[in-house]
Write a structure and sequence with these properties.
With 283 residues, this protein is of the alpha/beta class. 40% of the residues lie in helices and 16% in strands. The longest helix has 27 residues.
Length: 283
């Protein structure tokens, strides 16, 4: 089985619609794909309706968290999307995205870059606006050559155009996801190119609080980092996943570029009680 547990659609900051994403996943030879848009479940219905035969959909979300001034992302799988407490927190994060993005546009303009809110709004469309949309705007203007360059030079947590947003405490995120019947995996925890990362001691504390796993095989982790994370996961009795973090044309990663072991996937499904994987019927 080929299993990719981290992808994004136009419901957040990807460039493929949910229908295009699941069709692309099938074409890439995947057996299982997880839709994990940022703080959003808006793509679920379209993805389910278009799901090709032979492909299984795992519903999820990538939750925005922060601890001690450091941002981290929590992948949540197979939770009940209607559970009110978790739904309310996702809404608070989404509601803060627009004023935050507007403030970042203001900072970029103060730095002499002619980006406009109208341009960013057009790029985001119906998705939850975020930094990748700002990065795309900067690429359109020729200010940067890639999304990664935009983050590295301007939009990362320590960058001159960065603005904080409402984010969950990761311990609270674990509690909420568990209460909604879901499973939690810390996304790309040592992706240093994105900015400051949480120390390993925090990962140990999260594990003690019920974290299920860490994303190890990811484009932003080099070989030594993956080896360290794999060893750390063994020490902490955490599951290890691999995923593409696919964003369509917005990033260079391909669907299925990194994958999750079928036994790990089976354990995620076994632990979940809020929702279940959806088998494709040829949508």
């Amino acid at each position: 089985m080929r299993i990719d547990l981290h992808t994004h659609s136009t419901a957040s900051d990807g460039t493929d619609t949910p229908a295009e994403l699941v069709r692309g996943a099938a074409a890439a030879g995947l057996d299982v794909v997880a839709l994990t848009d940022h703080d959003s479940v808006a793509g679920y219905a379209e993805a389910r309706a278009a799901l090709p035969a032979g492909l299984t959909l795992v519903t999820g979300a990538e939750l925005s968290c922060r601890i001690d001034g450091v941002s981290l992302h929590m992948l949540a799988y197979l939770f009940d999307p209607a559970e009110p407490e978790l739904a309310r927190e996702r809404e608070l994060v989404r509601d803060d995205r627009v004023p935050r993005a507007r403030a970042m546009v203001g900072k970029l303009r103060d730095l002499g870059m002619p980006v406009t809110w109208e341009q960013v709004e057009r790029i985001a469309g119906d998705g939850a606006v975020g930094r990748p949309h700002l990065a795309t705007a900067l690429m359109e203007l020729g200010v940067v050559g890639s999304v990664d360059e935009a983050f590295t030079s301007l939009l990362a947590g320590d960058g001159p155009a960065y603005v904080e947003k409402h984010e969950l405490d990761p311990f609270e995120a674990i509690r909420l996801v568990k209460a909604a019947g879901g499973v939690t995996v810390c996304a790309h925890p040592l992706a240093v190119k994105r900015g400051r990362c949480i120390p390993e001691s925090v990962l140990a504390e999260l594990a003690a609080a019920g974290l299920d796993g860490i994303e190890v095989d990811h484009m932003d982790h080099d070989g030594p980092t993956r080896a360290r994370l794999r060893a750390l996961a063994a020490e902490l009795n955490l599951l290890t996943t691999g995923s593409s973090d696919y964003h369509g044309s917005r990033k260079t990663c391909r669907l299925g570029e990194y994958t999750t072991d079928p036994e790990v996937y089976g354990e995620i499904v076994r632990r979940a009680t809020g929702a279940f994987p959806v088998p494709g019927a040829g949508g």
